[in-house]
Structure formats: structure tokens, C-alpha cells
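Please, structure for the following, as C-alpha cells.
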Amino acid sequence: MGIFFDDPKPKLSKEEFQKAKNALSSYGFSEKEIDFVEGLFASDLHGTRDSNKGIQMEEIENNIKWLRSNLSSHALSKDQIVILERELKERL
């Protein structure tokens, strides 16, 4: 095996993330809340190399953990965080 290899971990693509954002809207998330979520995952979603683009499970879990630990730092409710987590993981 060489030094360079494809990362076998599944990643949430831009297209799937867009579907998740549409679903969040149908659950009543405001445009501002959806923009916040997109900003939270922007660096993961828009990697500098094609191989880095997309959101991995670990990145989803880390951001969800941060949201739960910092409820006073954003406008998402506990219920919205549960919905966000489910929508992202279902599309992974």
C-alpha cells in the first residue's frame, strides 16, 4: 500500500447537504438557523482538495457535540439539534 490512498470513510456530499438543508426547512428551521448550520460545516464541505470535500461522520458528531455543549452560543434548540443530527446521518 502506498502513502496516498482514497479515504474509505463515507462523506456527506454538497448535494446531500443541500437535501438536508431542505429537510430542515420543512421542519421549521429559519433561514438564519440553516445559514448557521451551513457555516458550522463550511470548512468540511468545501475542502481545498476534491478528496477533502464532504462531511464525515466524525465531523458531524463533533459539531453536534459542540452544539449540545454550547446551547447559549447559538439559537438551535435541543430538539432542532436532534433533527439536524438525524438528517445529516441519514444522508451519509
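The beta strands are 11-12, 55-56. The chain is about 60% helix and 5% strand.
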